[in-house]
């Protein structure tokens, strides 16, 4: 008997959060999905916030991603500032069918944490579809500058999703 035959084959149990997006369920639907989220802060004075912002995606079937804090913007060192579009990645999330809503909220600690959210765009990397969720509302204070406690909003997708750029769009073309 060789050494290879004597040693048991190791097994690796992977939690959902570390699963690959290529894993499939019995109905040929991926178990996990990856999403790019672009959060746009309005350009009006004092529109930005230093508060922690969270999101959760929901699809038309009622499936939800984890509740995720948007920590590190890929596009800006200081996130959620006036006029900025901040890019975030959600990886190893529950796979979603057609997206329906984005719930977004922030932990407001004071008047400086009010935030004017312009919109959120989400790209589903499994389908390369882009979804648009307009907002245009303040979280943390009203338009007449009075203080109030709205720090949560549920945004509905508007229109039909559109196809985002895919890898094949960058493939070399044969020009004969």
From TrEMBL:
SUPFAM superfamilies: Lipase/lipooxygenase domain (PLAT/LH2 domain). It holds the Pfam family PLAT. InterPro entries: Inner_ear_hair_cell_LOXHD, PLAT/LH2_dom, PLAT/LH2_dom_sf. Residues 16-25 have a biased composition (Polar residues). Residues 33-153 form the PLAT domain. Residues 1-32 are annotated as: Disordered. It comes from the Eukaryota. Coiled coil: none annotated. This is (pine wood nematode) hypothetical protein.
């Amino acid at each position: 008997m060789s050494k290879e035959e004597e040693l048991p084959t190791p097994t690796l149990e992977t939690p959902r959060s570390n699963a690959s997006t290529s894993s499939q369920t019995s109905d040929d639907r991926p178990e996990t999905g990856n999403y790019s989220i672009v959060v746009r802060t309005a350009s009006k004075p004092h529109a930005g916030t230093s508060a922690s912002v969270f999101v959760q995606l929901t699809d038309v079937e009622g499936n939800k991603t984890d509740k995720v804090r948007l920590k590190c913007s890929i596009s800006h060192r200081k996130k959620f500032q006036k006029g900025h579009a901040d890019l975030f990645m959600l990886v190893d999330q529950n796979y979603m069918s057609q997206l329906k809503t984005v719930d977004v909220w922030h932990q407001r600690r004071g008047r400086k944490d009010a935030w004017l959210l312009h919109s959120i765009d989400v790209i589903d990397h499994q389908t390369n579809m882009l979804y648009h969720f307009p907002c245009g509302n303040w979280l943390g204070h009203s338009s007449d500058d009075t203080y109030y406690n709205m720090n949560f909003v549920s945004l509905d997708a508007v229109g039909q999703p559109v196809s985002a750029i895919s890898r094949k769009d960058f493939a070399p073309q044969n020009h004969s």
